[in-house]
Amino acid sequence: MNPKLYPLQFEPILKERIWGGEKLKTILNKPITSNITGESWELSTVEGDVSVVANGALKGTALTTLIDESPNEILGTAVYKRFGKQFPLLFKYLDAREDLSIQVHPNDALAKERHNSFGKTEMWFVTQADADARIIVGFKENSSKEEYVKHLNDKTLVDILDTVKAKPGDVFFLETGTVHAIGAGLVVAEIQQTSDITYRLYDFDRKDAQGNTRELHVDLALDAINYNKVDTQKKYDSKVNVSNEVVDCPYFTTNYIPLESKIEVAKNGESFTVYMCIEGSFEIEFDGFKNSYQKGDTVLVPAEINSFILNGKASILEIYIS
């Protein structure tokens, strides 16, 4: 095993958003300096927003550089074979002080054709929710392009969309084409394909500090939307010290681990593993290495590290590609 590699943390890439707030600092300990910080990109190779190692001997090294030099060791043999030297996922925390825009993401074929990009299948894990916080996910009933356009033009789009109250621990899995919006008062962990392609449908006519409205992508969205009613909320077990499957899709597998003590983890070298600490704190131990992680931390375990220990008392998301 390459002695250089160890569980890697990265500098958060902080994004101001018109709908952002300060919870990424107060709840997740992110070093924000603005009261409209909406996103912390935890792990990214999106062009212009490439994550940089924050800990250990490789501190200051770009994730893309590590992958370029050691693709099998970082990504895993199966992931490298499938995606080449691309890191296929993007990990974020989001703080919605206000409602996000109503939006949709294109599928792989459409995103490739129009943007030379992956599509954007994603999931949300709600980490904090104010009273009565809710999300918009899909249509109340099966709809059509014509009905959608009529309501969009009448500014009544929300009337035909499904609204779901959200609480901590809720999981929503959003396949491409699902119209959606994170509502005010929510902090979520987001796991998605590596893509920054979003079609904004409606932004509640809000204006920025300069009095400008944000760009909408109404025409592009017409062929990207799934107009059928969808079931997005995922139920999952919470067995202690076990990886409880939450989402298993072609793009990623996410498990929920309620960690109460120590568990031994064995991997096969085919995929990297990412851990997001939702509550509490834990340590990763392997081959003389030991480091602790707190609520809000994200850590990438390179694929070549195939045996290690998780120890602590925490709620953790475990993500890999199967």
Automatic annotation (TrEMBL):
Its cofactor is Zn(2+). Binds 1 zinc ion per subunit. Pfam families: GAD (PF02938), MPI_cupin_dom (PF21621), PMI_typeI_cat (PF20511). One of its GO terms (biological process) is carbohydrate metabolic process. Residues 10-116 form the Phosphomannose isomerase type I catalytic domain. InterPro entries: Carb_Metab_Reg_Kinase/Isom, GAD_dom, Man6P_isomerase_Firm_short, MPI_cupin_dom, PMI_typeI_cat, RmlC-like_jellyroll, RmlC_Cupin_sf. Signal peptide: none annotated. Residues 247-320 form the Mannose-6-phosphate isomerase cupin domain. This is Phosphohexomutase. The lineage of its organism: Bacteria, Pseudomonadati, Bacteroidota, Flavobacteriia, Flavobacteriales.
